[in-house]
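re: ur question from yesterday

yeah so i grabbed the chain u mentioned. its 437 aa long if i counted rite. heres the sequnce exactly as i have it in my notes:
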Amino acid sequence: MFVHYIDLAWRSLRQTPMVTFLMILAIAIGIGVTMTTLSVYHMMSMDPIPHKSDRLFAVQLQTMDDGETWLTDDDIPYQLTYPDAINLQALPGEFPRAAMIRAGFSVHLNTARSKPFIENARVTGRDFFSMFDLTFIHGGAWTEAQSRDAAPVVVIDEEMAQQLFGKTDVVGESLFLGERRQEIVGVTQKWRPTIKFYDLNNGSFGKAERLFVPFSHVKAYDVDTWGNTNGWKFEETRDFNDKMNSEMLWIQFWVQLDTPQQRQAFGDMLMAYMQQQQNQGRFNRDTLAYSLQDVNAWMNYNDVISEDNKILVGLSFMFLAVCVANILGLLLAKFMRRAADVGVRRALGASKRQVFYQHLVEVGLLGLLGGTLGVLFAQLGLLGVRQTYNYYESLANMDWVMLLSAPAIAISACIVAGLYPAWLVCRTTPATHLKVQ
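ran it thru and got these C-alpha cells back, copy pasting raw so excuse formatting
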C-alpha cells in the first residue's frame, strides 16, 4: 500500500508542476538557511576528543590576593604564572601533564632557495603529544633529557615537512627558528581539531600549530608568548626574567587524570602546593581555591558557543517556520481542488484514514525532494561562511549527522504543514461530489 501511495504522490506532484516547484523551492531555501547555521553550531558543540574528554583537565589556581577579582564566574584566572607552571610540572606522580604557551618563529632552512615564513608554534612538554592524540609518522617526541637540557630540537607535522623538504621522513634534518638551528626529532600526522580546545585563551577556532618545541626553551632562549598575558597587580618588569618571576598569568596547564582517585590525589597536591606558597607570602587569601575543568566543561566555561550563534540558529528555524506556513497555504489550495476526486475515492470504499495517509505520503515526498535540494543550498551557504571567515574553515562543514538531519527535518516540516490540509480533505463528503459529477 505504501508503494501505491508513493506512486499516487508522484503523479499528483507531476500534475501541478509549478505549485510543486514553488513548494520544493520554499522548503529547500528554509532547509538551506537552517542547516547552514545548525551545521556550524553542531561542529562548535561537538566533543573534540570524545574518548578522553572526561580525563583531560585544564588547571586553574586562585593566585590573587583577597580583594582582587577576575572576569570569570568563579573568580579564578584562566592561566597560570610561570613559577606555578614549573612547580606543577615537578609535582610527583605518573600522570601526563603539559605546561604550554603559543609562540611563533621565523622558519627557514638558511639557504638561498628557502624563503622564511612566520609560523605559530606550541611551546610545551613532551606529554602534549600523547595527551592530545597526535600521531607520529616518523620519529617521536623529544626525550626527558632533551627537555631538561633545553636541547635545540623540534617536532613538525607532515604538511610543514613537505613544505620545507618535499618529503615527510625528515627526522635528523635541521631547520632554523630565527637564527637558532633546530634538529627535527619527530614528524606528526596533520592535526586539525575543529576546536582549539587546549588553548581557548587565544581563539577557540584558530588553526592548530604545526611546530612544537620543548617548554624549557622559554627560559633557555627567552621565548615569550604570542598569546594573552594578564596581570592583577602592579609589578615592575624590566626584562623577560622579571616577567618569568612575576605574578603575570600567561601559561596554560593541562593534566590527564584517568581515575577519580588520581583526580582526588592531584587535587590534594594542588591544595598542599598552594598552602606551601601561602607560607612563602603568595596566595594571600582566606580561602584557597583551584579548579580542574574537563574538556567540555572548559569549553562551556570559556563560552565557546556564544549567544550570537544560538540566536542565529533560533532565527533560522523561525525562517523555516515561515517557509512551512507558505507551504501550508499552497497545500490547502492544492488539496481542496482535489476534493471531487477524493469524494469519488471515498464513495468507492476508501476510508478517511487511507485518504489521510495518502496525502501525508505526498507531503513527505515533497519534503524529501526539498530536503535534498536544501542540502545543496546549505553547502553553498557553508562555502560562503568559509570564504568570509577563514577561522571557520574547519567548522563550516556538514558531517554525516547533518547530512541525514537535513532531509529528516524537511520531511518533518512538510508533514507538519500537511497535517491540517490532509485532515481537511479526508473529511470530504462523498455524496456532495457525486451529485456534482
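noticed a couple things. The first strand starts at residue 56 and ends at 61. also The two ends are 27 Å apart (CA to CA).
anyway ttyl
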